[in-house]
Amino acid sequence: GESVGLHLPTLSVQEGDNSIINCAYSNSASDYFIWYKQESGKGPQFIIDIRSNMDKRQGQRVTVLLNKTVKHLSLQIAATQPGDSAVYFCAETGTASKLTFGTGTRLQVTL
Amino acid sequence: ETGVTQSPTHLIKTRGQQVTLRCSSQSGHNTVSWYQQALGQGPQFIFQYYREEENGRGNFPPRFSGLQFPNYSSELNVNALELDDSALYLCASSLAGWGNTEAFFGQGTRLTVV
Predict the structure, then answer these.
(1) Chain B residues within an 8 Å CB radius of A93
(2) Which residues in chain B have Cβ-Cβ distances shorter than 8 Å to A32?
(3) In this prediction, what percent of chain A has a pLDDT beyond 90?
(4) Which of B48, B102, B108 sits opposite A46 (nearest CB)?
């Protein structure tokens, strides 16, 4: 069935370093992908999205890469800050009108 | 702030009871989706409403039902509550009926069933 999974449940990064969070998806019909950040006690916060006709998209300090050949998505955060500490989810959607989320990766930023 | 508001923020109910959760979508958005997020898990899609009609449903039993009003606000109703219904319930609003547009989430309602 459809699934979106994350390779690492917890990622620990030193402040100032770059972070890379990975995600694998299994639905080849997926055509839109979103990364969300969720802090404790809050709802998911939209970070960046990418459509299947692109392989890279950049935002402020964040970059999303999409490799459709191996069905892999990554989120790169440049110069990671303490405020980046949170759980990060990738989500995908295809022809269905729903987002399918993975279980999340916890990013811990150490000083 | 996303402009999506949910009420109440926390709720405690007894097994077997019924609950209604409410969501006001972001201004200009006509689509509302509901998700259930168990502790330590990613959100799971319950259903979506577009222009007051259900527009897709996830793998949830019929005791999970919803409504969307002309102003695009929405309710999630759960009957015959079970202990496993304890979760964070999230509402997301977006502009189109399909999922492939930005979806913005509210803060969620934390439901505890005892």
Answers:
(1) 98-100
(2) 99-101
(3) 68
(4) B102
pLDDT in tens, A31-85: 889 999 999 888 999 999 999 999 999 999 999 999 999 999 999 999 999 999 9
Residue B39 predicted with pLDDT over 50 = yes
* Rounded distance between C-alpha atoms, residue B95 and residue B101, angstroms: 7
CA proximity to A107, closest of A25, A1, A9: A9
Q: CB-CB: which of B45, B97, B99 is closest to A32?
A: B99
Strand B10-13 and strand B109-113: the pairing is parallel
Query: Across the interface, do B40 and A34 touch by the CB < 8 Å criterion?
Result: no
Which burial class, exposed, middle or buried, applies to B27 when counting CB atoms under 10 A from its CB (0-12, 13-18, 19+)? exposed
What is the identity of the amino acid at B68? Q
- Are residues B106 and A43, on separate chains, in Cβ contact within 8 Å? yes
pLDDT band at B55 (very low <50, low <70, confident <90, very high): confident
Asked whether the beta carbons of A52 and A107 are under 8 A apart, the reply is: no
In a mutagenesis test of the B interface, which of A23, A27, A98, A106 is the best target, namely the one with the most B β-carbons within 10 Å?
Answer: A98
What angle (nearest 5°) sits at the alpha carbon of residue A89, between those of residues B95 and A43?
Answer: 60
Task: Give yes or no for residue A2 having a pLDDT over 70.
Answer: no
